[in-house]
Amino acid sequence: EPDPQDEPPENGGIPPVARLHELQISQAFIQGLRIAQLDDSRLSAATIARLRSPSHEPHTITDLERAALRMFLARGDASEENYTDHRAAMSELHPEDTALPTYEQLKILVAELTGIHALREDMCINSCIAYTGPFAERNTCPYCSEPRYDEVQTTRARTNIPRRTFHTFPLGPQIQAM
Description:
Structural class: mainly alpha
């Protein structure tokens, strides 16, 4: 049974008085930020090198890549379904343009152009926590006691398969891309 101090406030908001356990968790995150270093991050070596020595040369892209980027950003949601529909329509109209990037190829192109690569993080199936910082090594949620990994898929795949994940975009590459 979870410790009552671990339970989130009933209204989901900020508790009127901070609890000792919550302060300890906050301090653990702050300490992690204080000692954080690029070399200890989960950023790729290429991303770290780019942060340390940014390129000042413009990237060269083909006309088809430019068209693909415009389709990708056209509606603002940049969803896979939206892009795939636009790509199919463009391919029907111009069947000779076989080099129009797929959605996956376009995501790679955007990451290469901007230097911004998403990092995938595990999270509680009920969105209580992200398994980062002081929670990184946990296998169950401290608030709802749900397991981090899907037991059936993990057994089948022979590797830990998280029940829920989210993507985050590191701040450094975003600022650098501006």
